[in-house]
Amino acid sequence: MAAGGALCGSREGSAELWDWNQTWYTSTPRFTWCFESTVIAWIPCVYLWICFPFYYLYLRHRKNGYIRISHIFKAKMVLGFTLVILCFSNVFFALWEISHGIPRAPVFFISPAVVGITMILAMFLIHVERMMGIRSSGILLVFWLLSFVAAVVMFSSKVQHALERCPEASSSFLSKITYWWFSGLVWKGCQQSLCMHDLWTVRKEDSSEEIVAWAEREWKKYHSRTQQKMESATFKKGQKSGTGIAEAEETEVLLQSEHSSSGPLLKTFWSMFGTYFLLSTVCLVICDVFLFSIPKLLSLFLEFIEDQEAPGWHGYFYAFAMFLLACLQTLFEQRYMYMCLVLGLRLKTAVTGLVYRKILVMSNASRKAATVGEIVNLVSVDVQKLMDLIIYFNGTWLAPIRIIICFVFLWQLLGPSALASIAVFLFLLPLNFVITKKRSQFQEIQMKHKDERAKLTNAILSDIKVIKLYGWEKTFMEKVLGIRKQELQALKKSQILFSASLASFHSSTFLIAFVMFVVYTLVDTTHVLDAQKAFVSLTLINILNTAHSFLPFSINAAVQAKVSLNRLAAFLNLEELNLESSSRNTSDCVQASITIRNGTFCWSKENSCLRRIDLTVPQGSLLAVVGQVGAGKSSLLSALLGELEKTDGCVTMKGIAAYVPQQAWIQNASVEDNILFGKEMDETWFNRVIDACALQPDLECFPAGQKSEIGEKGINISGGQKQRVNLARAVYQKASIYLLDDPLSAVDAHVGQHIFEHVLGPNGLLKDKTRVLVTHTVNILPQVDNIVFLVDGTISEIGSYQELLQRNGAFAEFLHSHITAEEKAGTDFPAIGDARCTITSRNGPSQEKLSSDSSVKSSAMERETVPVSQDCPTAPATKGRLTKGEKTQHGRVNTLIYAAYLKAMGLPLCVYIILLFTCQQAVSFSRGYWLSVWTDDPVHNGTQQHTELRVAVFGALGVIQALGRFVSTAAVLLGGVLASHKLFVQLLRNVARSPMVFFEQTPIGNLLNRFSREMDAIDSVIPDKLKSLLGFLFNLLEIYLVIIVATPRAAMAIVPLTVLYAVIQHFYIITSCQLRRREAASRSPIYSHISETFQGSTVIRAYKDQERFILKNNFLVDENQRICFPGAVADRWLATNLEFLGNAIVLFAALFAAMGRTHLSPGTAGFSVSCALQITGVLNWMVRSWTEIENNIVSVERVREYLKTPKEAPWTLNGKLQDQVWPTAGRIEFRNYSLRYRPNLELALKRVSLTINGREKVRKAICFRRAMRCELCFAVIGSGPHSPCPTPGYSHLQA
């Protein structure tokens, strides 16, 4: 296997020569890439070279004459030379790549060289055979057959590998621009549930390995430039400063101003993605060219309708021309959207990678400025804001250009009357800017409260065990709900302003048209408002309205992205650890393992925690560090690891260090993986470490032994077990130096003695290693080589145990006070026989038997069973598994989820909203119909009659519609806030009332995902999309009504096209929902990994294992992107197909209008075709809104998922405390009480009978095994951290 890795490298396919899982234990067997490139390719070569000497001797001694050169021989030689050229071209290409810095494994040039030389040998033998008169050769026949078989094997593997990749690269041009290459996945998603192997692997250019490395290079480049400019400016200001105080003040101000600058980060993203973004912008510009060509064609088409003498083919030509331009517009617009979405995914990968790598180098001061909740918000909410900016940014400059072009065209139609529209527009523009600015302020307030809530939620979930033991759930729920109330208040104000903004945007179409038509018709009575002027103007105004509405969205997206970019830049600019604080020296000339010379260290710049430290630790010695609490013992170890800021002195460590922190850090992985920590398994050494750390009895109790899974933060094992796993991890590493921060504090005294004797002491596994042991266990101090006694961050005394006692200094005083305190503590409790309690079990063991079980091994086995996953309790693959993965539903979202959301909004409000939208759309239809009647008014003496009446009614209908739109939009958005509040409270209560087994089995990332990303979708996305869906749905009904009334024959085309719409939408939503669910489930492991890394970054750095964790993060991000990319393409596939069908409806509406122009008035035709031109966008956005709701309603489904999980007993009954009479004395009674941790596990307490009366002390009475003491305490509390399940019996607690 090692040879395969050396020959094939580690980055090209599978570097292993053989993999049974890939070749034998699989449903789709194939060889590894390394095996195919070497063994398979070389088998024919080896065969021919072995046969060559014998066959050549045979040919030399057998001469049958001479065969003349034939066409077959020439063909053989040409094919042979072609194969040789191909082989050696691969060799030269691989060497060229290596010369240009592209890493290539040796097999890339060795294998084709071997094959090429063998081909030359085969050609030589063909020539020799011709010279010797041999017409057929068995040797070469076998060679060519072997070569053919080898080629077939390698070709089939390449085909299979290509099928796993995205088919876009191999698809045709037409398939690429229409996204038909995606149809296969859509069809598969409708037939079956999509699995990960159904999705394509991430393209190399989209992978974390490529993008994050690129982002790191660019960020370091621009960040260093900014730092250099800042230092230069600081130096200049310092020279101009008159005093040192002024200089310091100016420097500090400059640092503060530069600290949160997002300029370098923005330059980083632009240098990476700027070119690709500009290409997408070109597509959008071309799309706009076709967009403005359509109104010109509409104008010509209406002229044709009005001119009865025009040839009929003109109408058909204009109809097909509009269809063609609309299709081209669709293709370029969707290409723009596709490129933006791909760019957004790459940006997301880059940001996540930069944030994760920042976590690994954050200093201690920086860790105070950022929490896990805030970091999760950075890679979820803030990244989404940046992705939105990519789509909307071009609107900030392209929308004004669209508006100007619209005004130019309107001038051509209506002359100077178009200037009135500019006045209206200029009136609305500052109003919209004011609203947008005010709304952004509320959004900043909302984000601030959201961060506070995320921080508090993360703290609660991290310490849920303590909160449940104290019964503080309601108190913390009230705190969270208080912050949530402030967050929703800001959201509510923001939504009201958003409703006003939308109403003004949509009313701008009416206002501009109304003012222009009024000025045009009333200023000069000879101005006739005909169908061409009115409906072409309306088409242009619709484009204007789109640009007008797109502009504030773009500005809003830019503002939000600016806030997110500043937040991200502030995080990335946080102070990092100085990796040079502690130097590593592997030179043999250095005798001491650890040396500190005049070291002064601090956690932050405010004050020093260690001062004037001079310390030398000889190689292989055991140094104990003791002192009072807060003396700086843990800080000393942190200083050795480089975790503290070194202000003076130097630190040198010889060799590799292993670190055991005081607070054990445990990964959500198996016991074995926690101990190996990325190292290869050595069974002999592993078993020795397990025995020495007293873990063997624990492993015997776990259902899957060393394969049993430990929950997040070790939630399902005791503190002693955590610390022993932590210690075992360090011992297994076989390091040179061991830094041990009080590893014996969490274990019993006899277990600690066992660990000291077998691991730390003079005869332990680490006897030849350098050990720095921080401890409060004074009885082991005589066995250490040297002792360092710290007082207030300085070394007070240093020497051996006897030397320090003889000095009778601070250490002797500390030792005397410590021993005295222990003696006093020991006399505070009565003897065991004094406690009046009886303990019996089903087997009736005596108390003496329980006490005798407290041997080293038995006591070290703190009985804490790791539960088996309830999903597959008997499956060998899941035996010992604790945490449950994210559940993903299949198919479409259940109707009950929609009902639950509408119920949260309130059914009366839902009915009110439907009525509002119906009335508003009826008014809109009346306004359009009134305009068509106005344009059909006959002209007498160059003027139209009843113009004032037409203007008044048209204006009144527009005002009523604007008010209706504001009220209906506000009702939907505020209803969404109400539903979000109810669902959040429901989620919080469901999680808070869940037993501890729920938190053991549910990774914290899953819960943080529910409280952050899913609630963000419920807060903002679902109400916005629901508002859009209702608006577009009623608009669609109006358009259908107009087209069918104007041209009834168009129903023949509309009905089948609508059915086709429904079919496409049906196929899309089933696949899209599955992708959305899988994408949501794939985010949680990323958040869990970030949280785990943040908590254990010190340990990761101590073991120099950052690269492995970075690779895991890359893998998790790539798995998420593997789902996100098909989701993005699915949107483009849907939009392209829907817009093509919408364009077809425009075509049929125009064709039928051209056919019936003899009995169709120009006003009706203009009304029909102008509405038909809107149907493409309306249908597209309606289905897109519907799809977005279906995709995001999954958030409601996931939030409500915890409704069905088991809950604890109610905290109160009928709003009253369960015990009405306050007890006067404390009393605990158990009668025949049995208890297990959860169903399907054995009993932890068996038929216990126990009575403890008031004022009785029971500490020494509970003298049996430590785990049983815990179990009994949890039974007394009633809600322990392991959620014990009582069986029939009786317990009574009176306190």
UniProtKB/TrEMBL annotation:
Write one Gene Ontology MF term. Answer: ATP hydrolysis activity
| CDD domains recorded | ABC_6TM_MRP1_2_3_6_D1_like, ABC_6TM_MRP1_2_3_6_D2_like, ABCC_MRP_domain1
Q: Which GO terms describe its cellular component?
A: endomembrane system; membrane
> What sections of the protein cross the membrane?
39-58, 78-96, 108-126, 138-157, 169-187, 276-295, 315-332, 389-411, 417-435, 496-523, 535-559, 951-979, 1029-1047, 1053-1070, 1140-1159
Question: Per the database record, which ranges form the ABC transporter domain?
Answer: 594-817
- Keyword annotations of the record: ATP-binding, Membrane, Nucleotide-binding, Repeat, Translocase, Transmembrane, Transmembrane helix, Transport
Residue stretches of biased makeup (Low complexity): 846-859
List, for all copies, the residue spans of the domain called ABC transmembrane type-1: 278-560, 913-1191
> Among its keywords, does the record have Transcription regulation?
no
Topology in membrane = Multi-pass membrane protein
Where located?
Endomembrane system
- SMART domains with a match to the protein in the record: AAA
Q: Per the UniProt record, which EC number(s) apply here?
A: 7.6.2.3
Annotated region described as Disordered, given as residue ranges: 840-886
- Primary enzyme class: translocase
Name the catalysed reactions: leukotriene C4(in) + ATP + H2O = leukotriene C4(out) + ADP + phosphate + H(+)
Top-level taxonomic group: Eukaryota
Keyword field contains Cytoplasm: no
Report the sequence similarity comment from the record: Belongs to the ABC transporter superfamily. ABCC family. Conjugate transporter (TC 3.A.1.208) subfamily.
Output this protein's name: ABC-type glutathione-S-conjugate transporter
